[in-house]
C-alpha cells in the first residue's frame, strides 16, 4: 500500500499542541490556559467586529510599570452585570504549559461574596474577553464560557496577544496605555434562581488604573 499523504502543517501543529497538553495532564498538572485558535502562538488576536459591545472597559495606564512586575496578576475593581459582581484579571507576562513565549493573558472573575452562593451552586457564564486597538477603534479577542462555583471563582486564562506583539504595536499599546474589556453574553445559575434577572442596557463601566511603582491609583466612571 502507498504511504498516506503528509498532514498539512496546521494540523501537525494542532496535534503537537494536543499531545503536549495530554502529556502535561498525565503528569498530574492542571491546564488552566486556553489554546489560541491558530497555527502558532505568535499571531495577533482575531478582530471581534463593530458589534462587540463590552459592558466593562479597563484602561491600564503606564503599562510598562506593570510589566516590571512580571507574571504577577492584577485585578480590576468590581463591576455589576447580570445581577452579579465581576472583575477582570490581567497577567501581563504569562508563560505556562505549551506556550513558547510570554503572552498577555486575561480572565474573568466572579465575586462570591456578592452572591452568597451555597457550596452546590454554580454560575455558568458566556462572555467575550478583548483588548482594544487604538489605531482602528476595534476590539480583538475571543469568546469563552466557564462554570464558576464557590471554590473556583476565576475563569481559565485567555491568551489575548503575545507580549512581543503588544510591545511593538502602536495600536494595542498607545501612550503606554492598554485597554481591556469584557462583554458578558449570558449567565445561568444552577440550581436556578427563584427570580429571573432582568438585564437593562446601559453605558459600559469604565475604570482607569494608573500604575505607580509604589502602588495603584484607580478611578471609576460610567
CATH class: Mainly Beta
Strand content is 35-45%
Please name the CATH topology: Apoptosis, Tumor Necrosis Factor Receptor Associated Protein 2, Chain A
Spatial strand arrangement across the major sheet: 7-6-9-1-10-11
Q: How many strand elements?
A: 11
State the distance separating the first and last CA atoms: 68 Å
Concise summary:
The chain is mainly beta and 222 residues long. The chain has three helices and eleven strands, in the order αβαβββββββαβββ.
Give the SSE map:
Elements: H1 9-26, E1 56-61, H2 63-67, E2 74-75, E3 79-81, E4 84-94, E5 103-110, E6 122-133, E7 138-149, E8 158-162, H3 163-167, E9 177-190, E10 205-212, E11 215-221
Parallel strand pairs: 1-10
Antiparallel strand pairs: 1-9, 2-4, 3-4, 4-5, 5-8, 6-7, 6-9, 10-11
Organism: Aegilops tauschii subsp. strangulata (Goatgrass)
Protein name: MATH domain-containing protein
Domain MATH: 53-184
Question: Would you write up a description of this structure?
Answer:
The chain contains 3 helices and 11 strands; from the N terminus they run H-E-H-E-E-E-E-E-E-E-H-E-E-E. By secondary structure, it is mostly beta strands. It has a single domain (43-221), classed as Sandwich (Apoptosis, Tumor Necrosis Factor Receptor Associated Protein 2, Chain A), CATH 2.60.210. The strands form 2 sheets. Strands 7-6-9-1-10-11 form a 6-stranded mixed sheet. Strands 2, 3, 4, 5 and 8 form a 5-stranded antiparallel sheet that branches. The longest helix is centred in the first third of the chain and has 18 residues, at 9-26. The N and C termini lie far apart (68 Å).
Amino acid at each position: 500500500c502507498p504511504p498516506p499523504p503528509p498532514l498539512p502543517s496546521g494540523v501537525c501543529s494542532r496535534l503537537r499542541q494536543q499531545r503536549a497538553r495530554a502529556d502535561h495532564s498525565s503528569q498530574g498538572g492542571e491546564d488552566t490556559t486556553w489554546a489560541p485558535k491558530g497555527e502558532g502562538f505568535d499571531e495577533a488576536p482575531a478582530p471581534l467586529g463593530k458589534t462587540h459591545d463590552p459592558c466593562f472597559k479597563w484602561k491600564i495606564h503606564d503599562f510598562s510599570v506593570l510589566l516590571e512586575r512580571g507574571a504577577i496578576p492584577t485585578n480590576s475593581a468590581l463591576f455589576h452585570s447580570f445581577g452579579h459582581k465581576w472583575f477582570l484579571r490581567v497577567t501581563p507576562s504569562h508563560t505556562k504549559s505549551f506556550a513558547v513565549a510570554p503572552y498577555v493573558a486575561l480572565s474573568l472573575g466572579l465575586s462570591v461574596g456578592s452572591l452568597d452562593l451555597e457550596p452546590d451552586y454554580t454560575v455558568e457564564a458566556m462572555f467575550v474577553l478583548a483588548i482594544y486597538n487604538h489605531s482602528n477603534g476595534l476590539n480583538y479577542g475571543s469568546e469563552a464560557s466557564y462554570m464558576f462555583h464557590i471554590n473556583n471563582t476565576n475563569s481559565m486564562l485567555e491568551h489575548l496577544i503575545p507580549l512581543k506583539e503588544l510591545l511593538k504595536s502602536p495600536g494595542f499599546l498607545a501612550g503606554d496605555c492598554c485597554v481591556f474589556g469584557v462583554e458578558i453574553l449570558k449567565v445561568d445559575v444552577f440550581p436556578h434562581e427563584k427570580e429571573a434577572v432582568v438585564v437593562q442596557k446601559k453605558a459600559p463601566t469604565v475604570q482607569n488604573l494608573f500604575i505607580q511603582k509604589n502602588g495603584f491609583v484607580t478611578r471609576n466612571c460610567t
